[in-house]
Amino acid sequence: MADSEVLHAEHRLEYPYSRSTGPIIGAFLTGLRDGRFLGATGTDGKIIVPPTEYDPLTGDDVGELVEVGPGGVIESWAWVSQPLRKHPLQTPFAWALIRLDGADTALLHAVAAPGPDALATGARVTAKFRDADERIGSMADLEAFVLEGGAS
Amino acid sequence: MADETSEQGPVTTLATPIRLDFEFTPGIAQSKFLRGLERGEFLGQRCGTCGKVYVPSRGTCPTDGVLTTEDVLLGNSGTVTTFCVVNVPFAGQSIEIPYICAQILLDGANLSFMGLIQEIPTDQIRMGMRVEAVWVDESELIPSLASVRYFRPNGEPDADYETYKEYL
Amino acid sequence: MSAAGRTVRPVSIASFAQSRSVRRDNERNEAEGLHPVIAEVFGNIGITKDDVDFICSGSTDYLIGGPFSFVMALDAIGVWPPRSESHVEMDGAWAMYEAWVLLQEGEIDAALVYSFGRSSLGDLNEILTLQLDPYYEAPLWPDIVSLSALQARALIDSGKATEADFAAIASRSRRDALGNPNAQVAKDVPVEVLLEDDYVVAPLRRHTLPPITDGAAAIVLAAGDKATQWSERPVWITGFDHRMETHSLGARDLTSSPSVTKAAEVAGVADGKIDIAELHTPFAHQEVIVKEALGLDDSVVINPSGGPLAANPLMSAGLIRIGEAASRIRAGQADRAVAHATSGPCLQQNLVCVLEGA
Q: Which of C88, C158, C179, C350 sees the fewest Cβ atoms within 10 Å?
């Protein structure tokens, strides 16, 4: 059969999904809406950010939620020179794993910076939240992280 | 924790909409079937091992696992093997309820497919009823089952149960 | 030390087949594309579908954008009379593990394992983002290349590897692929030239990324009499295990792989000398991590097939590592091999399979 006879069609798959958060993730997202970060206390006092319901290594229930950040340290980063259409920023930026002050695990988010030369593992960043009336309780409540003491 | 939040109350849900775009390919055999519809024809394929004729064909025989390569042109007439009368409204419904949805076994085929039955009151549809396809105008034919407007009774006496009981 | 991963009942890999890996196979549907692979895996040893007691497949609906897509693939095999069949939304290597467990329990004597996937149909970056934590990570839509780049940066920062090391792995892999008729990307390009590639997401340059591939693969497992009847030189599975790390990327040390190390220990990798290793490390830097986690030294030939940098048919690439290792043992090029498969971002889940010739 000639190639031209085989058919192709565009197929769009779309679901609205609304997920229940539970008390731990819900508390963290509520914190974001309030402009702050919360971490959960895991086994041996480890502070897990973003918080999970159970310690990821031991499986113990987590304990108290404590405030962490808003500044932190870059543990790893990757420079995106050509953002994809669903990336949080549409101008070149860096993904980063950020260990917020007081946390023992890292959070994944975007860092707005003028170029890859401004980034380094170990650099300090701080959260840039959106205005209060734009925050709904999601990771998108953060516009990005920015380098402390530097231009964004 | 909850006591320290604003008057809005704690966040309990997160909207996470998903949208993915795909290219869909029906494959070689199914494309043949769809191209057949574009010509106003029902095209099936015969399995070289068991002899069954599948319409539409997906390119292999599901019982023997061999490629089906022999094309078979089928006519417009067939038998209703089973049916249901749809009374329940649902989002996206394009046909006025009540309407009859039926499995139609085309003459010469060993696989039935679903079709709309019209031109008969919904309380008169029955298993074994002989039906014929009503196509759209020639200028409206496309490679889709939408080229078949519906099936309607063709006036022949009902088919004997023995002739279609294997397809229930 | 657990004996769970060590073989109780000898199970062999009796036959292996794979499709030629290509960028786009969008004329045929799943059953049409899989059929020749199934025909070959049976034909190699002169058996039919009626000679296997169990069928298990690895594939994912997310690649095709439709539910129960694996069910239509069964048309390529013919499942009448009704067959005992199972499926995992994982690489076929995990489907093979499930079949191996049933064979260990003595419930069956032979199994067909197959996998398929067409990455060309959708946007792979967006699709793979859906495997991430749905609350914290997925809503930001971080693509698999970006996440892998975070791992590569961490590896460089740790001092365990350099960008030149990654280029050397890519160069060697695609050069070795010149000897693999099924490979998609095969060429001999020196390291200096590769290091001039642009970054896709720094520190990953284009050559460190796997190709996007459509493909399928199948393996027949046999135990007892069938193992010796179907092969003159059976390839035995002597160890098989898989482990998973936490879902949270930020809670893992991305420069090491405790799950590979644990699976290797349970499967007994260190019980003898390893001649070749087929590693499912789609990003070049990941070979450094997995090689170390498996405890392999420089005497081990890694990815003689070219590995996933030469062809990365999602859902089959892990099963193909096992098949490629088995093929070389059967051909007398190796006596003992380890095959590895991975799933999830940044080597989150890992499977280790140890193979030995008769």
A: C179
Superfamily assignment of C124-210+237-357 in CATH? Thiolase/Chalcone synthase (3.40.47.10)
Contacts with C, B 55-74, CB within 8 Å: 58-67
Tell me, yes or no, whether A36 lies in a domain. yes
Specify the pLDDT at position A142: 97
With CB atoms and an 8 Å threshold, state whether A12 touches B19.
yes
CATH classification (class only), C6-123+212-230: alpha beta
A99 and C CB contact within 8 Å? yes
Q: What is the pLDDT along chain B (168 residues), one digit of tens a residue?
A: 444 445 689 999 999 999 999 999 999 999 999 999 999 999 999 999 999 999 999 999 999 999 998 999 999 999 999 999 999 988 888 888 899 999 999 999 999 999 999 999 999 999 999 999 999 999 999 999 999 999 999 999 999 999 999 998
Listed in order, the ranges of chain C carrying CATH 3.40.47.10 are: 6-123+212-230, 124-210+237-357
Instruction: Over range A99-113, report the average pLDDT.
Output: 98
Query: Cβ B65–C29 below 8 Å, yes or no?
Result: no
Q: Give residue B75's domain range.
A: 28-167
Q: What is the ipTM of this complex?
A: 0.95
Q: How many domains would you assign to chain B?
A: 1
SS3 call for A57: coil
Of B124, B106, B98, whose CA–CA distance to B33 is shortest?
B106
Radius of gyration in angstroms for the set of CA atoms belonging to chain C, rounded to a whole number: 19
Nearest CA to C326 among C247, C219, C179?
A: C219
pLDDT (average), residues C117-132: 96
Helix (H, G, I), strand (E, B) or coil at C124: helix
Query: Other CB atoms closer than 10 Å to residue C85's CB: what's the count?
Result: 15
pTM, whole model, 2 decimals? 0.94
- What are the tens digits of pLDDT across the range A121-150? 999 999 999 999 999 999 999 999 999 976
Residue A25 to chain B, least CA–CA distance (Å) = 9
CB–CB of B58 and C75 under 8 A? yes
Residue pairs between chains B and C whose CB atoms are closer than 8 Å: 85
Domain of A44, in residue numbers: 8-147
Q: Do B11 and A65 touch (CB under 8 A)?
A: no
The Cα C188–Cα C176 span in angstroms is 8
Q: Do B20 and A12 touch (CB under 8 A)?
A: yes
Per the structure, the count of domains in chain A is 1
Q: Is residue A126 part of a domain?
A: yes
- Which residues in chain B are contacts of A27 at CB distance < 8 A? 1-2, 10
Residues 131-150 on C with a CB inside 8 Å of B are: 134-135, 138-139
Interchain contact, C28 vs B25, CB within 8 Å: yes
* Helical residues (DSSP H) of C295-339, grouped into ranges: 317-330
Task: Report helix, strand and coil shares of chain C as percent, to nearest 5.
Answer: 40, 25, 35
Encoded amino acid at C299, one letter: S
